[in-house]
Design brief:
The protein has 12 helices and no strands. It has about 220 residues and is an all-alpha fold. It starts with 5 loop residues before the first helix and ends in a 7-residue tail after the last helix.
Length: about 220
Amino acid sequence: MTELLPDAVAALPATPLADAVIEVVRPVESQSVFNHSVRSYLFARLVADRLAVFDYDDDLLFAACVMHDLGVATDGAHQERFEVEGAERAAGFLTQQGISTANADQVWQAIALHTSPGIAEHRGELCVLLRAGVAVDFGGPIGAEHVEAITDEQAATIHAAYPRLNMVRSLTDAIVAQAAKNPTKNAPVPSVPADFLRERAADGETRLERASRSSRWGN
């Protein structure tokens, strides 16, 4: 496994596409959700290193991770479940940037399937790495198999650069708000948005929020 130096752990790609992705995402997401998206990329890179996966396209991984919650962006249409809406926005943006339809479709799949365990893992490296990066950022409640592979030093560097800012609650709030605008289309049963809507209505918080309190990173 390649050992990443501390100053490289939180480094982002210095490419025109990465810059364009940040420019489109940062203004329309809360700082908490934006930081979560960036951390998901940084953790996904560490997972790829752990799994000895070196042939992925880093620009596409960055785009998939940083845009994976674009479906809850404040300027969105909010007319489909957030995973699909985010996937559509991301793929459309990438084709506008000159990315091939095939590569944009890889990003579409990774984003659309990132809440689908048992499916994403069978749809290629980009799907695997995005889901793993997101799971690691939750610190254990979901997909805990890679969390313990992250060293305390790596985690501290990433969290110092991109603080959590009550991420689990903030992201859940955004998903619930998006789902509630049109539950039939935005929260079909079964789905993560449907679960969140039901659990918030019944208990005031979701099982994910409760579980996060005992996760490695907390909320």
